[in-house]
Amino acid sequence: MKTLTFLARSGPVGSSRPKALLDMVLSAAVFEQKINFIFLDDGVYQLLPDQDPARLAAKNVSSALPALELYGVDKVYVDTESLQKRGLSGRPLLISAKACNADEVRSLLADADMVFGL
Hints:
With about 120 residues, the protein is an alpha/beta fold. The chain has helices at about 15-30, 65-70, 80-85, 100-110; strands spanning about 5-10, 35-40, 75-80, 100, 115.
């Protein structure tokens, strides 16, 4: 079975990228693909709980992230450097994600058969 790696790099509001990527992840999960889901750069903001994008007339894509577990997506990672650069280290996250450094992210990417990023 091939490993599909998805890179969430966009913040939770301001574009359709987070929703499109989540739709891709869930679609792949339905077909029982091996999935790595990595949050890095501004994508780490998607993992913050209690977001209310309604004030911006935007949908809360992050509220759908807990469904990942129901779809069998259990290999979720967050880049520690991205958290640190944004002052988010130590903050509680919406879902469980394994903290990894840049070397670990590179290793995940090197081991992937396909990489999708938005």
